[in-house]
Structure formats: C-alpha cells, structure tokens
Design brief:
Elements lengths: L2 H13 L16 H21 L7 H16 L12 H14 L6 E3 L1 E4 H21 L5 H20 L5 H17 L3 H11 L16 H18 L6 H11 L8 E2 L13 E2 L4 H11 L2 H13 L8 H6 L16 E6 L4 E6 L2 E6 L21 E5 L2 E10 L12 E5 L2 E13 L15 E3 L4 E3 L7 E15 L2 E9 L4 E8 L4 E3 L2 E2 L5 E3 L5 E5 L2 E6 L13 H4 L10 E8 L2 E9 L1
Parallel strand pairs: 19-22
Antiparallel strand pairs: 1-2, 3-4, 5-6, 6-7, 7-8, 8-9, 9-16, 10-11, 11-14, 12-13, 14-15, 15-23, 16-22, 17-20, 18-19, 20-21, 21-23
Helix pairs in contact: 1-5, 2-3, 3-4, 3-5, 4-6, 5-6, 5-7, 6-7, 6-8, 7-8, 7-9, 9-10, 11-12
Length: about 575
C-alpha cells in the first residue's frame, strides 16, 4: 500500500471514531476522551502560533514546531481549523524561513554550528509535517510540500555523514534518518542507523540511560527508539523503553514531577514534569497491556500540564496510539526502591516521598562540567504540597566544598548510610632526586589548585575529615544523623524548601530567603501540608562554602527557595528530625 493511501485511510478511520482496519488495537476501539483532549489543546496552540510566527528570533526547532502545530490542526477533520485557509500563509512563511536558514550542506545552526544532531530534531518534525500534508493532499499545501521535500532531501545526507556530541544524539539522528528514509529511501541512511545501533543502547540494568536524565529520556531517547523500532522493524529496541518507563514509575512524584537528582545533564537541579512521557506510556500500555502504564498516562491527561497539543501529530501519524487503554492497575505508591547503578534510593508512602542520593561522579572525575553528576543534594522529602527540595551539608574544610557521598549503602531494614572521607595534603620538601637547581618545577594540580610545585613527587602530610549521614525512616518522616570527625571545623546544614509556603520557628537572616533554626522545632507549611524540622543547633553563623572550584570562577551553588541553616562544629554527632504533620 502506498504511504499516502495508508496514512489518509488511517486519518479517515480515526476521524470516524475507529482505528485502521487490521491494526493491533482496532478491536479495542478509540479513546475519544484522549482524542478530544489533544484536539482542543492543539486548537488552543494555533492562535499563539498565528500571533508569533513572524518572530525572526525563533530558532529552527521553534519554527519547525510551530509549523507542526499548524499542520496538525489543518489536516485533522475534527479540528475547528480543518482546512482553514488562514493557516496557509503562516505555514508557507515558516517553511520558507526553514529553507532560508538551511546551509548548503543540509545542516542548520542551532546553538552549535552546522550541527547534524541539532538539525535532526527539526528534521523529525519536518518529516512528520510532510507526511501529514501528503496524506491530506490539498492543492493549497502543494507549495509547502515541495519546499519541505527539498529541505528533507538536502538534510538526509548530512545526517548520514555527520557526527554527534552526546549519547542521546545518536538515537535522535537515527530516528530522523529512519523518517527521511521512510519518505525518500536511501541505503546510506539505513547504513548509518545500523552503525549507531551497533554501538549498543546506553542503558543500565536499572533501566536508566547513561545520561541519567528524565529530560533526555522523555524528549529524545525513548521517542527516538520507538520511532526506529516502528519504521525500521526493530522490536528489540522496545524493551529498553519498557525498562526505562518501569524505572520511571518509582521516580514519579505524587504531583506529576519526576525526580532528577541523579541526572548528569542540566535537569539535575531543575523540576521536570511527566507530561513529556504521555505517548510513551500509552504506547507501552497498549503494547504490553500494562495497567500501570495506562494509569500514568491517564493521570497525565487529567493533570492537563504541558503542551499536550503537540502529541496530536503523533496520533494522526499512528492512530493506534489513540486506542482505548487496558484496564488501569495501581502504579507503585508504597515502596522502598533502589537504583544501584546510580546509587539512588526512592521511598514513597502515599503522598510522602523521599530521595537519597550518593551517586555523584565527583569522586571519579573531580571536576565541575556538563555531562557529570555534581549535585551536592543528598536528600529530598515532601508531603503533599510541602516540598523540601534539598538537604546539603557544607563543612569549612580547606575550601573543598559540599559533602558529596561516595556511594549509598543499606545500613538496616529502614535505614541507609551516606559517607565520604576528604583528605587534604600539606606538601613537604621534594626528595633530592626531584630537586632542580633552576627551581623550574612542573605545573601540576593537587586537587584544589595548580602551582609549579611538582605535587605528584612530594611527600605529604594529610588533614582528614570524615563525614557520614545515616538516614532512617521514622514514623511519618525521617531522622538524619550527621557524624563528622577527624578535624575541628565549622559546618552548615542547608534545608531548601520550595517557594510558596510559610516558615515558622526560625530566625530570618536577611531579605534574600535565608533563615536559621537556632533552637526548638521549625515548620514549613503549604495549605494543609506541613514539614516539621529540628532541633536547632545553636546560633553560630556558618556560610555554605561551595569550594574553590566554584569560587575561583565566581560560581554559585545556592539553590532557589527558602533556605534554613543549622550549624555546628566538628567533631559532632547531630540528628535532624523531619516529620510530615
């Protein structure tokens, strides 16, 4: 069957409330609530596009996505914008701009110059747009289809010959090539897809990809692998997505966020919402008849968060995604779940959740850089709307910065242990073998700084600080017991609560959101939800020291929110009680 005939038939069947004959999900019928949601959300997007499509500051990816939103409404028979002539000129403008911005080599500049992977993100949208317009086959869109075809044909060889930067780029480029090849077949595209796939999918036994990022799993890797599996007939890719979604069940927060503390990418200190996973959970719920995945998909739909209208194009392309979901089954809501590959544990008791993290890359690669997990947050806790986004510890020990645990270990049925030992050297005179009369010693690093001192060959004396934090589940919360020994240093514990609530029992230090719990118990309240914390540990003022790696570059590790400090001096043993009430 010709591609146009098949897709046009699928669109017609879907509009009539049925799924394409012979499809795997046809017998289950169409999820009309889901289709209506996507339709109305896309209809709401279109006026925003019409108001802004001439914005010359928009990136290539933004232009492509705006065009996709217009085309979704234009070709969809149930849309109020179906075959609306007012969409033609804006679409032609966007397509012409995309043609103008494309380099002679087929790539685009999108942050990076002449970038195959960044171009691939736009090319995926353009292929989807072309296929929908081709199936719709309206004379009014013929000029746009011709121009899009030229852009896609020009981009294909560049993607097949070019390189990438990050792990997820391999799958994005491969998915784009699968789409280009589906429209305009070329053996070079298939060969490059196979080259990338032959490297193996970068997934751990935990089900988490090597970048450990919910952002790139949901926006890039999972949808790309599913696209390749569909267009290149590679069902062996589906289990990677299945395992990632199964792992994500234990990272979901009750409000629809996804925990990102272990990420190696930009989202390690950001809030991530689960709506990006919608069609992935739907597809695997239908494929596996998994009621847990169906429950998450429906929760995303009910929440209404995010740009859900963007999924209409996917469903028009693959109507099976609009099938009725299997019977719902409870998603995990009472558990202790460990992720050994990233030294992470998640605990959930209904509306209460906690995250423990000891898997920073800092101990193996002691630098601060993109692509590394360096977040010093080691504990998070929430109950309902009251959210403690981070607990951090900063000893003032030779500007070595925050405590970062070297691993996470079970210490009991309801407890975990985080620990690290930091050793800082004093350097002694070189032995005679390495002394130079000209004093010209190698410029070397000793962990915190560099100097012409030939540090590797010097005998050393060390000062040591040992830190351990034992986290024990206790009633409606947790006890965090801090043990610091080996050196006498001041330290500060930082509790950062999400903005939006009220603090009581604490002393305000300034107008910048800094507080201190001197004695007794403090509380953070949002509506009916409340986290109590304490006891206070004295009035000494101790600043959070991010370490010389940050201060040398005027960097900062101050988290956004309401920050409460508890301070002390080692050697010390102090237990912080956190309770939901």
């Amino acid at each position: 069957m010709q591609r146009r005939t098949f897709l046009a038939g699928s669109l017609g069947a879907l509009s009539a409330g049925a799924l394409p004959a012979g499809s795997a999900a046809a017998s289950g019928g169409t999820d009309e609530t889901f289709l209506t949601l996507l339709t109305t959300r896309n209809e709401a997007q279109i006026p925003l596009v019409l108001d802004s499509y001439r914005n010359t500051a928009d990136s290539v990816r933004t232009n492509a996505r705006k065009a996709r939103r217009l085309v979704s409404g234009y070709v969809w028979e149930r849309s109020a914008r179906h075959h609306d002539g007012a969409l033609i000129e804006p679409l032609e403008f966007l397509v012409e701009r995309l043609a103008t911005l494309q380099h002679d080599d087929g790539t685009y500049d999108i942050g990076n110059l002449h970038s195959p992977p960044d171009s691939a993100f736009a090319v995926q949208d353009l292929c989807l747009i072309w296929a929908l317009l081709d199936a719709d086959d309206q004379a009014a869109t013929e000029p746009s289809r011709v121009a899009l075809g030229r852009i896609i044909r020009k981009a294909g060889p560049a993607l097949a010959a070019g390189g990438v930067h990050t792990p997820n780029h391999r799958w994005e480029v491969s998915a784009a090539l699968a789409r280009v090849n589906h429209l305009f077949p070329d053996r070079r595209y298939v060969a490059r897809i196979d080259d990338w796939l032959d490297e193996g999918i970068d997934a751990t036994p935990d089900g988490i990809y090597s970048e450990r990022s919910a952002t790139y799993a949901s926006e890039v890797t999972n949808p790309s692998l599913l696209t390749i599996a569909w267009l290149r007939h590679k069902p062996e890719l589906i289990p990677f997505v299945r395992r990632n979604l199964a792992a994500t069940l234990f990272l979901l927060e009750p409000n629809g966020e996804v925990d990102t503390i272990a990420s190696r990418r930009q989202d390690q200190t950001r809030v991530r919402d689960s709506w990006w996973y919608l069609t992935q959970f739907r597809e695997l719920a239908l494929h596996d008849q998994d009621g847990r995945f169906a429950t998450v998909a429906k929760e995303i739909e009910r929440s209404g968060a995010g740009e859900l209208g963007d999924f209409l194009a996917e469903v028009l392309e693959r109507p099976d995604l609009a099938a009725r979901l299997p019977a719902a089954a409870p998603a995990p809501a009472d558990f202790v779940h460990e992720f050994p590959a990233q030294q992470l544990a998640r605990i959930r008791r209904g509306s209460r959740t906690a995250t423990l993290f000891g898997g920073t890359d800092f101990h193996d690669i002691p630098v601060i850089a993109s692509g590394l997990s360096t977040n010093p947050t080691f504990f998070k806790f929430r109950t309902g709307a009251a959210i403690l986004d981070s607990v951090r510890l900063s000893p003032q020990f030779f500007s070595t910065g925050h405590f970062r645990s070297d691993g996470l270990h079970r210490s009991g049925d309801r407890s975990f242990r985080l620990a690290d030992e930091v050793k800082v050297p004093y350097h002694l005179p070189l032995t005679k073998r390495y002394r130079r009369s000209d004093g010209a010693y190698a410029l070397t690093g000793e962990g915190r700084f560099y100097a012409s001192m030939d540090f590797p060959h010097r005998p050393k004396q060390y000062r040591t600080l040992r830190t351990a934090v034992t986290v024990t589940e206790a009633g409606a919360g947790f006890d965090l017991t801090f043990d610091l020994s080996g050196s006498e240093v001041p330290f500060a514990i930082e509790l950062c609560f999400r903005p939006g609530g009220t603090l009581t029992g604490v002393e305000q230090l300034d107008a910048a959101g800094n507080y201190q719990l001197v004695d007794g118990t403090g509380a953070y309240t949002v509506g009916a939800d409340r986290i109590e914390f304490g006891p206070g540990n004295g009035s000494a003022r101790v600043t959070m020291d991010p370490g010389e790696r940050y201060t040398q570059l005027n960097g900062s590790l101050t988290p956004d929110g309401l920050r409460v400090y508890l301070t002390g001096r080692s050697p010390a043993r102090y237990t912080l009680h956190l309770r939901a009430s």
